[in-house]
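FYI - complex with adenosine-5'-diphosphate, inputs then prediction.
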Amino acid sequence: MTANSILSVRNLQKHFGGLKAIDTVSFEVNKGETLGVIGPNGAGKTTLFNTICGVYEPTAGEVLLGTQAIHGLKPHQIARLGVARTFQISHPFRDMTVLDNVIMAMGGSHYTGLKGIFSISRTHDNISKAEALLAKLHILAQRDKRAGDLSLGYMRRLEIARALALEPKLLLLDEPCAGLSHDATQEFIDIISQLKATGTTIMLVEHNMAIAMTVCDRLVVLNYGVKIAEGPPAAIKNNTLVIEAYLGRDDDIA
Amino acid sequence: MYEVVVGINIGIFILLALSLNIITGYAGQPSLGHAAFFGIGAYTAAIMTAKLGYNFWLTLPCSAVTAGLIGALLGLVSLRVRNDFLAITTIGINFVTVAIFQYTPYFGASFGLGVERPQLFGQEMGNMHFLVLIVALIVLLCLFCRRIEKSWLGLALGGIRNNEEAAASIGINVNMFKIIAFTIGTALAGLTGAIYAHHMTFIYSSDFAFVTSISILSMIVIGGMGTIRGTVTGAIILGIIPELFRFMSDYRMLLYGGLLVLMMRFQPEGLLGDNSFLWRQFKGLYSRYRLRQGLESGKGGAASDG
Ligand SMILES: Nc1ncnc2c1ncn2[C@@H]1O[C@H](COP(=O)(O)OP(=O)(O)O)[C@@H](O)[C@H]1O
Ligand SMILES: [Mg+2]
């Protein structure tokens, strides 16, 4: 483990019955970097996120946040330790306002103990913090809308605002650009660059190589649950294994 | 006196509807067996005063705790099953509970259980006293629900109602909060049961049957689930209709069922739910009123400036 590693994944495995969705994968995420996880559909990228976040218990292997082992913990515990995520398919709290969606992620220690759970959530402080995050993601104007009424692009932004409200050590983004128009994708690339500039450590699943190449400092390539390459974008671009994995499919070499 | 009795009956429905609203409205957990917990509270209280000689006031917390503990168990069950199956499970719990009351001699079996009206300052509590007690509890419960809505608990339950996976991803312990919602909601139904038993002075297992559960659920669905105003309104409307149209009381279920279907088709948010037609009109009117006031005071300000 390097000195500035935030997350280390060691020999991680996640099997679904006979299917090895994650097969002995190891890598590190360093403080302040944007690590891309790429690979064809079904490669195991979402499963990797779910295993890191505690949605699935690993079949074998370890996940360390700093020096603390987090595998085997529940998702809410891992979230409170500072791992925030967005979902490939947006999961906003649909019937609640955009503002509430963000404030909810600021509960932290208030979500335990009678005194905590009955204390007021929408304090001036929390409202202005949430508004600042909405402004950062350029959705402050949507503040009082129901989250379920937002467009797909806005939902994605809301999910990032909500994740940032946890003040995470590590932010996991699962295909934030999938299904977006060219312009919206460009805006997202800007947003991610902005987050990078403010020092957020990001792990980004991106199925589109071109986007991953632009925003990521380093890439980990998965294919059929196996890590087939790791390195800076320029090196990955010319890696024959990677090219084969993608050429085996029909899409995505941009 | 007739109005007082009607008021008590509606008041009891309001308490039951508010308590179910915590489970189904706030936390989004379907429960089609809420009357079971109302019954557990009623029988606990009746046994405590009629058979064991305890004081009525002591039955209120004891009924709440008994129903709440059993409700917590239901909460545990809810962790294991999907929402649609939970609905079936709660129906089952309702039938089993009623059967236990109906066939256990200690619970009076099909004869029911009789209790005495409690004493207050050396006097037997009359209907008016009960009405005052119930209204006071409704006010307290509304304040409590308001507090839930404003607190982290309300947000956590809203998270669970909308998306459990997302709720967990922002640090909400989904299992714990589900159990909290079931415990609070069923405990309050139990408390209401204690009052009901001592107001009626006679309870039968059939008072707590599945149809009662459906009535309570209909109230919150028709009024507007997840809101205090909708829940109270629904309880008042469905509580009053059978009183206004006596001949309909045999067809009550038909009426509730019909209203439910109409509501689901045309106004799934309920009459006064957050996104319902009526409530949006009301909010629109209110904000126009505010705007006009703002303009007028703005004019006043400009005049004084100049
Ligand atoms: N909960 C699950 N149960 C069984 N198989 C799963 C589950 N989740 C994912 N898989 C399988 O694991 C593999 C990897 O899926 P996924 O992680 O979603 O890929 P990616 O995100 O890279 O497209 C796929 O073959 C998928 O069908
Ligand atoms: Mg995926």
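Chain B is about 75% helix and 5% strand. Residues A 45-46, 88 surround magnesium ion (ligand 2) (CB under 6 Å).
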